[in-house]
C-alpha cells in the first residue's frame, strides 16, 4: 500500500474519530439538558397538582356545609348516637353527597373514619344501607360496635344462624323494620342469586337507600389488592338504578381511581381525597440484619427500650415467620401472639381480642390482620419483611397512632426479601411493578420518605414539611450528602458472572438466584467494594431493567432467578450507568484504612449494634459478644495510646453495697457520690400472683427527667437479675421501688446493682448477680465512665463490661451506638482495663453482702 493511500486513510480515520468525539460531547450535553427539562417538568407537575388540589377544595366547599335539609339531624345523630363531638375531615362532605344521591369515592387514610361516611347516612335515610366488605371477622367486629350504640346492623354469611338469616331476609324484602346496615362479602353477592333477588325486592319497596363498597381499590386490576369477586360489582349500578354508590379506600392512585369508576359504572363520581400525610408518624427504614437471630435481637431491643409496655404490630411475610417471631419475642419476655389466615377462626378472634384488651402487647401477623381494626393507641408498627406494594405499606403502617399521638413505623429491608416477595406475587397483573416501587422507596437513602409517598400518591410535597419525621430527614442536617457514581464497570462484572454461570453449565442448570449472585459478586470485587455496595448495585440494576427476574415453577414452589435484562441488551458500552450513593457509604473497602486521627469523625465502617437512634441498649445483652469482639481483639491498642485516649478526668469510684438497715428485700449501692436504694414492695396490688406471665414492675423515685425514667425503667426490667426472676418464677409479678438518693453519674449501673441485691436479700435469686462498668465516647473522642443524664446527650455510643458468674470472668457484654470501627478498638481496650480494676471489686462487695445475709 502506497504511502499516499495510507496517509489518506489515516486522515479519514482521524476525521471520523473527530466526528465521534463531537457526537459524544453532544450526547453529554443532551443528557444534561434532559436532566434540566425533567426538573422543570417535575416542578410544573407539582404546580398542576397544587392547582388540582385547589379545584378539589372548591368541590369540597360545595359539600362541606351545614345548610342541607338533614344537617341538623346529622349533627344530632353524630353526638347522641355515635358519641362524637365533631366530624373529621371529609366525613361531612361525603355524607352530604350520598344523601343528595350522588355517587362518591372517599379516600381517607387508615383511622380517618371512613365507616362513619355510610353508617351515619344509614340512620339519616331511614332505610337499608348495603355494605360490601371483604373480611367476615372485621364485619362482625363492626356489627358488635354498632349494636353497642343501639344501631340494628346484621350480616349474611356462611356462619349466620338460620333464625338470624330469616329475620334479615324478611327485613330486606318488607322494609318495615329498624334494620339499617346489612354487611355482605363480594363473594356472597357474586354467588347468591337469592341475595340479589331479595335486594331487588328491597329496592322495589323503597327500602334500599345506599350501597357502600369498602376497600374499593380491590375492584381495580391496577390496584395492589385486586380480587376477582369484586369484578361482579359492575352489575350494581345497572341493577339498582337510582341508588348511590359510595366507594371507600385508604389508598388509590389516579389509574386505580379511573379503573374503579369505569368498572363500577360511576364515571362522574365525586372524589373526596384526604392528604396522604400522617404528621404524627415517624417513618424509618433500617437495614435488616443478615441472620434471623440478629434481626430478632434488634427487634427485641427496640421494643424493650423504646416501646416498653406499649402496643404494637409486627408484620411478617409468611405464617411460619409469624409463629417463629412470636415465639422468640415471648422467650425474651415480650407478651406476643401470632395471627394469620391459616389459624382457626376462634383462635384468630381470641388473639385479636387479647391484643385489643392489652393482655397481649404485640401481635405478630401477616397481611390477614389489620383492615378495620379499632385500636387507637398502637405506638409502633414494624415490618419484619418487605411489603408487596407502597399501598400495602402505607395502609399497614397507618395502623399506628390513630389517636393522633406520636408513633413509629419501622421497615426492615434487605435485598433477599425482594425475591421472596416477588415469587409470591409474580402472577398478579401489576405485582412486580408494585413491588419494585416499594423497593425504590426502601432502598432510597437520599429522598425524604414523605416525598416518596407523595410522588406515589400524586400529591405535592416539600421535604421541609416533613419536620424531620423520617430517618432520611433526621440525618440530613448532619449528612455529608450524596454522590452520583458511574457503575458501568461493576455492571459488566455482574453480567459476566450471570453469563459465565450459564455457559459453564452443560445441562442448562446455570441459572443464578439473587442471593447467589450477591455472593459471587462480593468475592469478585473483594478489596474494592463492600458487600453492602454489591447489594445496592444488584438492586439498582434490577430496578433500571439492566437485570430482570425469571421465574421457574416447580411442583412445590416458585423460584426467582436473575437474568440479563432488556435494557442491557440495547446498552451502549460507552454510556455511563449512574448510581446515587451516600458519601458516607460509597462502598470502597480501602476507605476503611484511613488514619486513626480521623476515626471519630470519618465515614469508615461503623460498629452499629444499637438501634438507629444511637441510644444505650440493654446492658445485659450477651449475645452480641461473639459477633463484635472478633472484630477488635485482633488489633489491640498499645498502652501509650490508651493512656492518651483516657486523658479526660474521671470521677473517683468507691464501691459500697449491701442491705439497707436490717430489712429483708432491700438493696443499697453507692458508686462514688451516687447512691441508690432498692426496696421490694411485694407482689402486685391485690396481693396475688398473676397466672399468665411473670414480670418485674419498677417504680423510680428521685429522677426528674421523664425520658430518663422511661429509659431506666426499661433497662432495669430487662437487666440480668430481672430476666432470671422472670424465667425462674413463671406466673409471678414483683414490684420494686428504686429511689435515687443522689446522682453524680453512673446511676443506672448503681440502680441495677441495688436492685439485684434487693432480689438476693429477699431470698429470690443471687446466682445472676453481676457488676458492670459503662464507658461512653463523646463526638470529640473523649471517654467518660458511667455518664450522668446530662452527660449522656450527644454521645456516639459506648461499651459495657461486666463480671459474668457463669463464665467466672469480667467480659464485654454490650456495644451500642454508631462508633467508627477504628475508634471502637481503643474504646474497648480502655474499658477492658478500667473494668478489670473496678468490676471485680464491685462483685466481691455483692458476694460478701449476700454471704452476710446467709442467702
TrEMBL record:
Catalytic activity: Couples ATP hydrolysis with the unwinding of duplex DNA by translocating in the 3'-5' direction; ATP + H2O = ADP + phosphate + H(+)
Single GO MF annotation: DNA binding
Record Gene3D superfamilies: GHMP Kinase, N-terminal domain, P-loop containing nucleotide triphosphate hydrolases, Winged helix-like DNA-binding domain superfamily/Winged helix DNA-binding domain
Residues covered by region (Disordered): 588-614
InterPro entries reported in the protein's UniProt record: DEAD/DEAH_box_helicase_dom, DNA_helicase_ATP-dep_RecQ, ExoRNase_PH_dom1, ExoRNase_PH_dom2_sf, Helicase_ATP-bd, Helicase_C-like, P-loop_NTPase, PNPase/RNase_PH_dom_sf
Domain Helicase ATP-binding: 95-270
Main localization (coarse): nucleus
Cellular component terms (Gene Ontology): nucleus
Location of this chain's protein in the cell: Nucleus
GO BP annotation list: DNA recombination
Ranges annotated as biased composition (Acidic residues): 603-614
Coiled-coil stretches: 6-54
Chain ranges of the Helicase C-terminal domain: 295-443
Enzyme Commission (EC) number: 5.6.2.4
Stored SMART domains: DEXDc, HELICc
Membrane-crossing residue ranges in chain numbering: none
Named cofactor requirement(s): Zn(2+)
Keywords from the named record: ATP-binding, Coiled coil, DNA-binding, Helicase, Hydrolase, Isomerase, Metal-binding, Nucleotide-binding, Nucleus, Zinc
NCBIfam families (UniProt xref): recQ_fam
Family statement: Belongs to the helicase family. RecQ subfamily.
Function as written in the Swiss-Prot or TrEMBL entry: DNA helicase that may play a role in the repair of DNA that is damaged by ultraviolet light or other mutagens. Exhibits a magnesium-dependent ATP-dependent DNA-helicase activity that unwinds single- and double-stranded DNA in a 3'-5' direction.
Name of this protein: ATP-dependent DNA helicase
